[in-house]
Design goal:
Elements (H helix, E strand, L loop, with lengths): L4 E6 H14 L4 E5 L1 H6 L2 H10 L4 E4 L2 H7 L7 E3 L13 H5 L3 E5 L2 H14 L3 E8 L6 E2 H13 L3 E7 L8 H15 L11 E3 L3 H6 L7 E4 L20 E6 L2 E5 L4 E2 L5 E2 L4 E6 L15 E5 L5 E8 L7 E4 L12 E5 L4 H7 L4 H6 L6 E6 L2 E6 L5
Parallel strand pairs: 1-20, 2-3, 2-10, 3-4, 4-5, 5-6, 6-7, 6-8, 8-9
Antiparallel strand pairs: 1-11, 11-19, 12-15, 13-14, 15-18, 16-17, 16-19, 17-18, 20-21
Helix pairs in contact: 1-3, 7-8
Length: 383
């Protein structure tokens, strides 16, 4: 299959990260967050890797994301987003009834919906109560305790968790304050909570920065891909993602040549310019002008780096390869980012890794690699 560019996902690196993170979090319960098709990397392939590493829950945002994973894992799936007006005939009803899927309760209307569905199916449904500690999501702290009491007493529900979300995980003081509010709300009922009901509020950054705020389970998103936002030390995590393309054309231009829309770059010397077929429609940020991409030879060895010159276009960018070997020509590999450079590439443009990764579009083919099997390519899931 012809592909102008490829996003390579290393499943062995993800497996290693899953084990490392489990150890760093003192072997407590782990929830792998696989929203948006695992941030565009392929949830169907990554979910079994996390399950094999002993992670006990996987989280998605939408109903269709949960349905797509049911045949790939046996651990329960948590739907983080709001779910309304389900009937016993809905495809999600059966996995809710047998415990393969759990729901998040954000308000009284959601609770009434779930109770009604459980009554209609004559089967209890697994739920997590979301509490607002500063994000504007979930039940207000003043109302959460009474709602939780009612949920625990209702035979139509199995309350598996009470959750919240930190607003600024890199801010230790604010994070501890949020956790204190969360824990204070739960304090009167701690003895009534079943052992299977877990407190969870910490995502990757908070979980790795501060053991005091982990609760009973941590939710890990891009940490499993080897990237932890706002951490100086990546804690032995291995980058699992590489974006590469091939030069489509090379041309020599004289000094004074204007490049790209608006002619914002003018060559100060005679130059060799190479066209790389990735642009903002593929998820390369428009602010990538000036970023240096790594050029590699046929053996994968780095020849050097070349800057993006001119405005990032919808389908392509130009890089200046004048200073590189004349061997750089059509078909030469160009790396937009690799496992070691991904976080720095995003940060240099003022982006978080999540922002960069989830914007990479379906025209960029995903290639899964693993020592356990042959390289295989898959299409990104539809949004």
């Amino acid at each position: 299959m012809h592909a102008d560019s490829t996003l390579q996902i290393d499943l062995d690196a993800i497996a290693s990260n899953a084990a490392v993170l489990h150890d760093l979090c003192d072997r407590q319960a782990m929830c792998g967050v696989l929203k948006a098709d695992a941030y565009g990397l392929g949830a169907h392939a990554i979910a079994p890797v996390l399950e094999a590493a002993g992670w006990s829950l996987l989280a998605v945002h939408r109903i269709d994301e949960a349905l797509a994973l049911l045949d790939h894992v046996s651990v329960p799936l948590l739907v983080l987003g709001p779910v309304r007006d389900l009937t016993p005939l809905h495809p999600l009803a059966a996995p809710l009834g047998d415990g393969r899927v759990q729901l998040v309760i954000q308000d009284g209307a959601a609770l009434d919906d779930v109770r009604g569905l459980a009554h209609a199916m004559s089967r209890p449904i697994g739920v997590h109560l979301e509490v607002d500690t500063g994000m504007g999501r979930g039940m207000h702290l003043n109302d959460a305790a009474n709602m939780l009491r009612g949920m625990l007493a209702d035979p139509r529900l199995v309350t598996h968790g009470v959750m919240s979300h930190f607003t600024a995980a890199a801010d230790r003081e604010r994070t501890r304050s949020q956790f204190a509010d969360f824990d204070r709300m739960l304090l009167p009922m701690r003895r009534r909570l079943p052992v299977t009901c877990r407190r969870h509020i910490a995502a990757t950054t908070a979980a790795l920065r501060d053991a005091e705020v982990r609760g009973d389970m941590v939710r890990i998103g891009l940490g499993w891909a080897g990237h932890a936002v706002a951490l100086d030390d990546q804690m032995h995590l291995t980058g699992a993602v590489r974006w590469q393309a091939s030069i489509a054309s090379v041309r020599a231009v004289p000094s004074g040549t204007a490049v790209g829309y608006g002619g914002r770059h003018v060559c100060a010397r005679d130059a060799r310019l190479a066209m790389v077929p990735v642009g903002y429609a593929d998820g390369l940020p428009v602010q990538a002008t000036g970023q240096r991409l790594t050029v590699r030879d046929a053996k994968g060895e780095a020849i050097g780096t070349a800057p993006i010159v001119g405005t990032v276009a919808m389908d392509q960018v130009m890089i200046d390869v004048t200073h590189l070997s004349a061997a750089v020509d059509v078909g030469t590999s160009v790396e937009v980012f690799g496992p070691e450079t991904f976080s720095a590439f995003a940060a240099s443009m003022g982006l978080q890794p999540h922002h960069l990764l989830t914007n990479i579009g379906p025209r960029v083919h995903r290639r899964l690699i693993s020592s356990a099997g042959a390289t295989r390519t898959h299409a990104v899931a539809a949004g």
